[in-house]
Amino acid sequence: MSEKMVDAASGDFIPADVRQTVVSQVLPQASIGVSRLRTLRRNMGLTAPYELEDADLVVLQLRPFGEQQLWLDGRPAPFVQYDAGTVTVHDLDRNWVADLQGSFDCMHFHLPRQTLEEVAEELGGRRRPQLYLPPHLSVRDPVIHGLGKALAPALAEPECASQLFIDHVVLAFQAHVAQQYSGAITERRRAAAGLTAWQELRAKEYLLAHLDTNVSVAEVARECGLSRGHFLRAFKETTGLPPHRWLISRRIELAQELMRNKDLPLITISQMCGFADQSHLTRTFTRLMGMSPARWQIDLGR
């Protein structure tokens, strides 16, 4: 017997003790739903299967959270520890499953993509905007955090809330997400500056996905829709580092994480982190950290 599928817009696929929801009908055929989900209990278990759809789920953490296991289309998915005010995006045309091990308090903004297209058209942006903010590239967003807190009283007592106020806040959220995370701002407005928010996130996502390979500038620039020269200038303007130095820093961070397991040989760690060999890892690590990997492991054990 096949599993029963639920509607992701309702938030019912997330096991929670408190579930509060408001809806804004931003288009005749599409609405944006906002839900607050929380529990003080641990080990709430797996999320339920949901119907795949052309929509995104923007998740705002109202308090720190990170005790979970996450899968995407049946494969383990990376994530980071989330602080209060952290925002992530789950694309609901793919199958996300979480094993919720810690207590949580979060808001879900269910965002049909056709509502993004409306904003993109108004801003003169690209026709089919796409959000780029997966769980391992989460960011603290004070604007969405503030909008979420503004909606908290309406969520607690929806029967007393003004629909006009709800619509106003949701429209502000919609415009902010479209501009910051979907590339809806035209290239003309940002050409002289750094990367747009979606370009920065896409570039970092692509670099992290190819952490153990020799990725080229042309590949990453193509992902951002830029020439190589423009991409190099914009990436450094945005991050303060050229792409290769940014990637080396991430490789060293991953090496440090793997080196906490002292049974894992350094030669294996160097391969997993994209270094040519163990000596390459040792030279780079020593230059950036001021000590060898072996010394770092000894200090870690003290």
From TrEMBL:
Check the record and name the InterPro entries matching this protein. AraC_XylS_family_regulators, Homeodomain-like_sf, HTH_AraC, HTH_AraC-typ_CS
Instruction: Please verify whether the record's keywords include Ligase.
Output: no
* Domain HTH araC/xylS-type residues, every copy: 201-299
Taxon lineage:
Bacteria, Pseudomonadati, Pseudomonadota, Betaproteobacteria, Burkholderiales
**SMART domains, per database record:** HTH_ARAC
| Transmembrane residue ranges | none
Q: Which SUPFAM superfamilies match?
A: Homeodomain-like (SSF46689)
Q: PROSITE patterns from the entry?
A: HTH_ARAC_FAMILY_1, HTH_ARAC_FAMILY_2
- Note one Pfam family from the annotation: HTH_18
Q: Which UniProt keywords apply?
A: DNA-binding, Transcription, Transcription regulation
In which organism is this protein found?
Paraburkholderia bannensis
**What is a GO molecular function of this protein?**
sequence-specific DNA binding
Q: Under which name does UniProt file this protein? A: AraC-like DNA-binding protein
